[in-house]
């Protein structure tokens, strides 16, 4: 029921911190690498330094919004068969768990193989983690489960798919980011006069 937008302009690089896999957003408009505080705490200790205080308390985003910096750290990641240690700025709240700026590409003299990048998939099916019943004329918010090939940090648009429409259900169109347990928030609407049951593992 979650369908990726074919017009998405986001480009991701799959990276690993030991066994932890993350979809890192490549941002040519950023001169620094940014990591969310949540992701920093999930990265294995063997792949990260401690957090160092930063000379500046804030950084300014492309939209001129200033955000508070928790600190900086060095993290070791693997991408495209190579291992690199990079400096990241750690923020409490970020639009993506990991953003790799131009500094990552330049400092490590990386030539990107676009064949190995993740660009928005056409369709990523979402499944219910448990049996769900929607009464007539109701709405329900829940977390849907994604397949293992959809990585933490991946962002796209969740919208109606044929199976949901055939049951009379509607999905509120929204931008979602895949969480560390490969789930996304979904809002379902049942505008009909009858209850609709969605079995566990289906959508």
Summarize the topology.
Layout: E1 11-17, E2 20-26, E3 34-36, H1 37-42, E4 58-60, E5 66-79, E6 82-91, E7 98-100, H2 102-107, E8 118-119, E9 127-128, E10 132-134, E11 138-145, E12 155-158, H3 162-166, E13 170-171, E14 174-177, E15 183-190, E16 196-198
Parallel strand pairs: 2-7, 3-6
Antiparallel strand pairs: 1-2, 1-8, 3-7, 4-5, 5-6, 9-11, 10-16, 11-15, 12-14, 13-15
Kindly report the CATH topology of the largest domain. Answer: Cathepsin D, subunit A, domain 1
CATH architecture of the largest domain: Beta Barrel
The CATH class of the largest domain is identified as Mainly Beta
Strand order of the biggest β-sheet: 4-5-6-3-7-2-1-8
Oligomer state equals single chain
Gap from first CA to last CA = 6 Å
Helix share of residues? under 10%
One letter per element, helices H and strands E, the order comes to EEEHEEEEHEEEEEHEEEE
Q: Helical stretch count?
A: 3
Main β-sheet, in a few words?
8 strands, mixed
User: pLDDT average, as an integer?
Assistant: 78
Backbone shape: elongated
Low-confidence spans: 1-7, 118-122
What structural class results from the helix and strand content?
mainly beta
Strand percent estimate: 35-45%
Number of DSSP-assigned strands: 16
Output the CATH homologous superfamily of the largest domain: Acid Proteases
Task: Give a description of the structure.
- The chain folds into two domains: 11-119, Cathepsin D, subunit A, domain 1 (Beta Barrel), CATH 2.40.70; 127-198, Deoxyuridine triphosphatase (dUTPase) (Deoxyuridine 5'-Triphosphate Nucleotidohydrolase, Chain A), CATH 2.70.40.10.
- It is built from three helices and 16 strands.
- The termini are close together.
- It is mostly beta strands.
- The strands form four sheets. Strands 4-5-6-3-7-2-1-8 form an eight-stranded mixed sheet.
- The longest helix has 6 residues, at 37-42.
């Amino acid at each position: 029921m979650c369908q990726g937008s074919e017009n998405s302009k986001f480009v991701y690089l799959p990276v690993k911190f030991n066994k932890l896999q993350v979809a890192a957003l490549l941002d040519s408009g950023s001169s620094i690498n940014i990591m969310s505080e949540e992701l920093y705490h999930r990265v294995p200790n063997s792949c990260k330094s401690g957090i160092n205080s930063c000379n500046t308390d804030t950084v300014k985003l492309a939209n001129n919004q200033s955000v508070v910096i928790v600190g900086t750290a060095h993290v070791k990641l693997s991408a495209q068969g190579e291992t690199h240690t990079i400096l990241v700025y750690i923020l409490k709240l970020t639009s993506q768990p990991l953003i790799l700026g131009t500094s990552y590409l330049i400092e490590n003299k990386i030539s990107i193989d676009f064949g190995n990048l993740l660009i928005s998939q056409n369709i990523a099916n979402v499944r219910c983690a448990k049996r769900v019943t929607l009464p007539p004329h109701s709405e329900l918010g829940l977390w849907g489960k994604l397949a293992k090939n959809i990585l933490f940090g991946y962002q796209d648009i969740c919208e109606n798919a044929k199976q949901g429409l055939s049951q009379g259900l509607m999905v509120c169109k929204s931008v979602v980011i895949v969480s560390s347990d490969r789930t996304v928030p979904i809002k379902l609407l049942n505008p009909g006069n009858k209850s609709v049951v969605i079995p566990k593992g289906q959508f």
